[in-house]
Amino acid sequence: MNQSGPAVEITKDRNGIHQVVLRNPRGASARVSLYGGQVLSWRTDRGEELLFASTKAIFKPPYAVRGGIPICFPQFGQRGSLEQHGFARNRIWIIDDNPPPLHPNDPSEKAYTDLLLKPSEDDMKIWPNR
């Protein structure tokens, strides 16, 4: 299967949340929501979905998405004083406009993007950067 569409594409879900779709030249893809920095889909070059997403998943803040590959930071579960799995999964991530370059020996067929989580003032009160 050949790649359809650009290697990196910015889209929106049905609630207006931005997503990044990454595709390799053979057609495999991954879809990452900027809400929580969460990988929502990972498809093989044959279009086979490799990740689970619950049919009960709510894709709208303030609810974390159920399924895929979530970011659990700075805690897992309720092992700390923060909300379940920490605050990172309930924040809007941004795309780094100036990412570091790939290593010169890396093949150029890779699709990539760097996501950043900028802490809010409230985040810094509960989890200060030290």
| Structure class | mainly beta
User: What would the principal axes of the Cα set say about the shape?
Assistant: globular
- What CATH calls the topology is Beta-galactosidase, Chain A, domain 5
- At the first level of CATH, the class is Mainly Beta
Amino- and carboxy-terminal Cα gap: 48 Å
Number of domains: 1
Protein name: Glucose-6-phosphate 1-epimerase
GO molecular function, one term: glucose-6-phosphate 1-epimerase activity
Pfam families: Aldose_epim (PF01263)
Organism: Gossypium lobatum
Describe this structure in words.
With 130 residues, this protein is mainly β. It has one domain: Beta-galactosidase, Chain A, domain 5. It is 5% helix and 20% strand. The strands form two sheets. A four-stranded antiparallel sheet has the order 1-2-3-4, with no helix packed on it. Strands 5-6 form a two-stranded antiparallel sheet. The longest helix is centred in the last third of the chain and has 6 residues. One of its GO terms (biological process) is carbohydrate metabolic process. It holds the Pfam family Aldose_epim. One of its GO terms (molecular function) is glucose-6-phosphate 1-epimerase activity. This is Glucose-6-phosphate 1-epimerase.
Key words describing this protein structure:
130 residues; mainly beta; Beta-galactosidase, Chain A, domain 5; two-stranded antiparallel ribbon; 1 helix; globular
Q: Quick gist of this model?
A:
InterPro entries: Aldose_1/G6P_1-epimerase (IPR008183), Gal_mutarotase_sf_dom (IPR011013), GH-type_carb-bd (IPR014718). Helices cover 5% and strands 20% of the residues.
